[in-house]
Structure formats: structure tokens, C-alpha cells
């Protein structure tokens, strides 16, 4: 049977009475306990309880105690509201960095919730790559989408670990970067494709750079937000399952539109 209350009314009630819902989250309480816990007047508690009863999020306990408890719907509403608040907070923390993301680029709150958002200092624009270098040194699998070469150190590290080590890499490169590497470093490209576990693809352009790094003990995704000249303006780092699933899906979508790179001829 549908609720007689509109979704907007219910959402407004939860937002206005969240403190009361939180106070009841760990078990039934009498009104005098709620007054003390919330540090408010009895009339405020009476009004809040009445509004939550109207949307069937709170129910009075049977028996002499006369306390109030959350219903199953009330518990679910509180959990959903908590998640929405966390999502909005995550978006708010990343707002400035997200301003550089193209409007039609894949993006999800799954990447932002639980993430660390940083902006490189102006005097050290490649500082975030130093952390990536550390992660690559212990990785056993990497998938990445790359727009430009920023430091030869990263290229050399990937070459050594795929040709001489046990690192497995898949990378989708912007066409300009693929052409640059083939023209300027043909031997390295040939070696990593033929002798290393390195599958390379090329696509016309990428909306941002990101790298999914897997180690024997953990996995992380690094998303590098770029400006119009492909400079790094921010880095979003996350290791939650939801963020990794999102990144894997986006990587698969981008790779599906890319062409495999063949080793350059001698």
C-alpha cells in the first residue's frame, strides 16, 4: 500500500529530525531521555516524535516503559540519509577538482566516497607521480589510461618491471602519446610488447588519466584530473571496492574503443 506522504515530505522530515532519529538508532528511549540527550525542550521532542510517527519511522513501545523506537522503515531511512550526506560531502570536497572534468566524461560518486582528493603544489606539479612510482614498485598488475609522458622515470620503471620482472600491464594511450613513444623510444616499445607482459592500446583522446594498481595485499585507483593542456590539476585516490569496480568498468569501456598497438619494426 503506497504511503500517503510525498517523497519530498518524507525527505524533509528525515532531514529536519535526523538528530532525533540518531538518538533512537541504538534502541528505544523515553521522551525525557530524548530531551536530555538532544538538549532541547519537551515540546520540540513532542513535535519531532509526532512528525516521525506520521511517516511511520517511529513507534511507541508496548508496555509500561512507554519509550519510542525506530521502525524498520525508520532505520532504513536513517541509513539512506547518512549515505546521502556522505555522498554530498565527498562531492563538496572534490568540487574544485571536478571542475576540470569534461561534462560527458564518466564520473561517479563511487569514486569520491572514501577518497582522498589532493591538488599538486604549483612548485611541484609532478609530486603526485612520486607516490605512483612507489606503488608501481610493489605492484603485480596495472591497468591505466594515459594522456602524456610526464617523467621518464615512470617509463623506465615500467620497462624494467615488465621486461625484467613480473609486472603485468595494460595501458590505453592517447594517440599523441602513442606516436611520441613509437617515434622517440621505438626499442622500449618493441621490447615491452614482445618480451614483457605489456599490452598497449591507443585511443584518440582521454578525459583524464587513471591507474588501477594491484599488489599482493591491496588495490588502489589513482585518477589524475587534467586541464585543457593536460596538466595535472588534482588527484583522486581511492581503495574502496566500489571505486575499484567503477574504475575497472570505465577502463573496459575505454579499451573497447581503442586499437591495439603493434610493436614498431626495426
Describe the structure concisely for a colleague:
The protein has helices at 7-16, 18-24, 31-38, 42-54, 72-98, 109-112, 127-136, 152-163, 175-184, 186-194, 241-256; strands at residues 58-60, 68-70, 116-118, 141-146, 168-174, 198-203, 209-214, 219-226, 232-238, 259-260. With 266 residues, the chain is an alpha+beta fold.
What does the model show?
It holds the Pfam family HVO_A0261_N. The chain has an eight-stranded mixed sheet with strand order 3-9-8-7-4-5-6-10, with helices on both faces. With 266 residues, it is α+β, with helices and mostly antiparallel strands. The model has no long low-confidence stretch (mean pLDDT 91). The chain is built from eleven helices and ten strands. The protein has helices at 7-16, 18-24, 31-38, 42-54, 72-98, 109-112, 127-136, 152-163, 175-184, 186-194, 241-256; strands at residues 58-60, 68-70, 116-118, 141-146, 168-174, 198-203, 209-214, 219-226, 232-238, 259-260. The radius of gyration is 26 Å and the shape is elongated. The protein folds into two domains: 7-81, Arc Repressor Mutant, subunit A, CATH 1.10.10; 99-260, Endonuclease, Chain A (2-Layer Sandwich).
Please count the helical segments.
11
Count of β-strands: 10
Average pLDDT level: 91
CATH architecture of the largest domain: 2-Layer Sandwich
Number of domains: 2
Rg from Cα: 26 Å
Query: Quick one: CATH superfamily of the largest domain?
Result: Endonuclease Chain A
Largest sheet: 8 strands, mixed
The CATH topology of the largest domain is given as: Endonuclease, Chain A
Arrangement of strands in the largest sheet: 3-9-8-7-4-5-6-10
CATH class group of the largest domain:
Alpha Beta
Q: Could you list the spans in which at least 5 consecutive residues all have pLDDT below 50?
A: none
Structural class: alpha+beta
Q: In whole angstroms, how far apart are the ends? A: 73 Å
Pfam family, one: FilR1_middle
Domain Methanogenesis regulatory protein FilR1 middle: 125-256
InterPro entries: ArsR-like_HTH, FilR1_middle_dom, HVO_A0261-like_N, WH-like_DNA-bd_sf, WH_DNA-bd_sf
Domain HVO-A0261-like N-terminal: 6-90
